[in-house]
Amino acid sequence: MLDKIEVDAPNVTSCAFGGENIDTLFITTAREGLSALELKKYPNSGNIFTIQIEVKGFKPDNYHQPCELISFEFL
Questions:
Q1: Cα three-residue angle 18-52-41, rounded to 5 degrees
Q2: Is pTM beyond 0.70 here?
Q3: Up-side HSE of residue 2: CA atoms within 13 Å toward CB?
Q4: What phi and psi, each to the nearest 5 degrees, are found at residue 48?
Q5: CA distances from 64 to 40, 59, 60, 61, 67 (A)
Q6: Bridge partners of 18?
């Protein structure tokens, strides 16, 4: 582990790089399952946190293969 980022929420759900230079880290959190006491202690639960970081993520490699239309028949 090179570094650790603390956020004001106990349930981190995911993170992703973004921003113009892909040097912003977006950290999502959840409120689900927290008690009233925990929500009082962590009122920012459920928010998205952002932090500028010194490293950059990778630009997405979009898949450019044409896809066929798929139709579904419901019984």
A1: 100
A2: yes
A3: 3
A4: -105, 125
A5: 47, 15, 12, 9, 9
A6: 24
Q: Which tokens belong to 48?
A: 């998205």
Residue indicated by tokens 């993520």: 57
Report yes or no: 29 and 45 within 8 Å, Cβ to Cβ: yes
Residues 33-60: tens digit of each pLDDT: 999 999 999 999 999 999 999 888 887 7
Encoded tokens for 31: 């409120």
Residues 42, 57: contact at Cβ < 8 Å? no
Strand partners, 16: 26
33 backbone φψ class: left, alpha, beta (φ>0; ψ -120 to 50): left
